[in-house]
Specification:
The chain has five helices and eight strands. The chain is an alpha+beta fold and 197 residues long. α1 packs across α2 and α3 packs antiparallel against α5. The radius of gyration is 16 Å and the shape is globular.
Length: 197
């Protein structure tokens, strides 16, 4: 398929629905930014506080109009509530590579299986619809919880980029790089992830 940034892609299964993030979703997510600002502890772009979330959403949507990012809002069907956000970014369609990240969920949705369902849908879409050869993941090297979650879905560690970003507090960040290749998805990751949904 030819990926179209203007198209409204909706990904869903029995547990979760992902749809394109919109400006009006501020109202669906603001309670997290006000009541759980620590969700963005390791993020390079903060969504904490009302102004932070407004900027976060506007930047995500602006990057979509520039054809390099495609953000989603996450809706948990089990609780009938919005749970957080995730996105494809650094989308290099000619090279058939994409990054998956900027993922966060409210605390009550963490550890519930929601993330695995989201990742399954996003990886399935990337490899089987967009025909990507590689999906990359990055995280602050200090964010052990996020790294463990990425490894648990089948990501392979590639290495660490030392001091490659400046954190909002001005300190330098080391970033771990992980990935899943299309052949790995076909050979084992898809089946292993399906068993855990």
């Amino acid at each position: 398929m030819n990926f179209d940034f203007s198209k409204q892609y909706i990904l869903e299964n029995e547990r979760v629905l992902l749809r394109p993030l919109e400006i009006i979703d501020f109202n669906n997510l603001v309670s997290f930014s006000v009541n759980e600002p620590e969700l963005w502890e390791y993020s390079l772009q903060k969504g904490s506080g009302k102004e932070g979330l407004k900027n976060y959403i506007e930047t995500a949507i602006e990057n979509r109009t520039k054809s390099n990012s495609y953000p989603f809002i996450v809706f948990d069907k089990n609780t009938n509530a919005f749970a957080g956000s995730t996105r494809f970014y650094d989308m290099q369609l000619a090279n058939k590579t994409v990054q998956l990240g900027f993922t966060w969920y409210g605390k009550s949705f963490q550890g519930t299986g929601l993330n695995k369902n989201c990742k399954y849908l996003l990886l399935e879409f990337a490899f089987e619809k967009m025909n990507m050869e590689r999906v990359e993941f990055r995280a602050d090297f200090e964010n052990k919880k996020s790294i463990a979650a990425m490894k648990s879905i089948g990501c392979k560690e590639e290495g660490v980029l030392r001091k490659n970003f400046i954190k909002p507090n001005g300190e330098r960040r080391d970033s771990i790089v992980l990935s899943i290749l299309k052949q790995e998805w076909i050979d084992e990751v898809k089946e292993n992830l399906l068993k855990r949904l």
